[in-house]
Amino acid sequence: MKIVVFGARGAVGSRIVAEARARGHNVTAVVRSSTQLNGEAQTVKSVAADITDATALPSLLAGFDLAISAVRPPDGQEQDLATLTESLLTAAATAKICLLIVGGAASLLVPDKNLHTVLTAPGFLPDEVVPIARASFAQYELCREERHADWTYLSPPAMLVPGERKGHYRIGADTLLIDGDGNSHISMEDFSVAMLDEAERPSHRQARFTVAY
């Protein structure tokens, strides 16, 4: 497939690019500025683009089979996440391709917490991650109301960190996945495996799913 990845230089985005390339897909990495165009040019085409430019994005997406958004605003600009996602959804709808979104865990229900989500459960989140959690909650609400674009929203577990590619994971829907030891985690590498599995064998169109070990 021809896949375009937004936020391709981020921690998750770069791993999605690597996983897609390892599977033999034709990948274009989209970054915020020309200063980020380096390194992977021999194997991955890179382009700089302004995601907020609604007039240019559909042309950029022309000819691709699929788009993946791993966009995450810089610290202090978390509130921009929903706006950036809306721009990508609109462009994907115009280009008639699916947008797979690296989402957040904020809107997932926490087991045995009386219908509290990760964001609303008292004491669940450290203060420093609340801004991006609120932004990702708004991002998911935006997707739920979207009726024109073909989208899929992948929520991570509580902990998403660099690690080993094990090649396996569990799938859930709207509830945080927790293992028998009380952990809710997955490596960024296996999160990327799940994203590419969905890209190749779509089963959650216009829906959210979550993964964890």
Automatic annotation (TrEMBL):
Per UniProt, residues of the NAD(P)-binding domain are: 7-198
Under InterPro entries, the record lists: NAD(P)-bd_dom (IPR016040), NAD(P)-bd_dom_sf (IPR036291), Polyketide_Oxido-like (IPR051606)
Q: Name one GO molecular function term.
A: oxidoreductase activity, acting on the CH-NH group of donors, NAD or NADP as acceptor
Q: What Pfam families does its record include?
A: NAD_binding_10
- The signal peptide here is none
| UniProt xrefs under PANTHER family | FLAVIN REDUCTASE (NADPH)
Q: What is this protein called?
A: NAD-dependent epimerase/dehydratase family protein
Per the UniProt entry, what species is this protein from, by scientific name?
Hwanghaeella grinnelliae
